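Entry 14. Structure prediction run on the chain below.
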Amino acid sequence: PKAVRHVVGYIPDTFGLYEEMTVSEYLEFFAGCFDVPSSLRRPMIADLLDLVGLTHRADDDVQTLSRGMRQRLGIARALVHDPLLIVADEPAAGLDPRARVELREILKALQEMGKTIFLSSHVLRELDEIATHVGILEDGQLIATGAVDAIRTRLRPHRRVRIAFAGKHEDAHAWLARHPDVIDIAPLALSRNGGQENRSEQSFDLCVTLRGQTEIVVALLAALVAAGFPVRGYIEEQDSLESLFLNLTRGVVS
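Output returned:
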C-alpha cells in the first residue's frame, strides 16, 4: 500500500487544508510525509507553485486563499511526490468560471508532462477538451469505455456535415442527392430577423449525412468546390460527451 501511495496523487473536490500554515509550509509538510529529501523540497515547491500560479502567495496563510486558489494548492499538494497517476474526483466542484478554466489549463499541462489523469465528473462539458478516453457509468455499471472518437463512431457510424452556400443551393441539393456516399440531406432553418431571412455567418443551409470516415468528409468538400458550388461554410457535427452520455444511458442510438 505504501508503494502505491507513492505513485498516486489524489485531488478530491474539497481539500482538508491546514489554514494556519503558509502555502510553502503546507507543501513542505506533505513533501515530508512522502519522504521527499530535504535538499529537493525547496526547488520542487517553487516549481509546483509556478505550475499552479501561486508563486506570489507562497508566504501567505492558507486561510487567506480563495476557493479557486485553495483548489490549485490542493493540486500542488497532490504532486509533491511526482506521482505517475493522478486521481481527481470532481475537481471543479464549486469553482467559478475563471477558476474552472485555470484548473482545465493545469490539467492539460499535467497531461503534456506525461501524467495519467483519472478524472470523475458530472460536468461533462468540462471534459470535452481534455478527455482522450472515457468510461460511462449507469446504475453502478460500466456501460461504455474506450477512446472518445471510438465511442462516437459506435453510436453514430455515419458522419454529418453542415454546409452553407453563398447563393441558392437547390442545384447543390440535387448534386448531393446523386453522390454515392450521401445517405440523407436535410434543410436547416435559417435565423430570422423581423420576418426576413438572415444568412449570418453562423447559419447553414443543409445537413448532409455521409457513409464513411474522415476521408469522405474531406473529399466531399473538395468535390463541391470542384463542381463550382459557392461553399461559404462547411463543418462536421461532433457529438459532445454530454450527448454521448445521454444516448448511452437512455439506450438510444442516433
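The chain is about 40% helix and 20% strand.
Filed with the rest of this week's runs.
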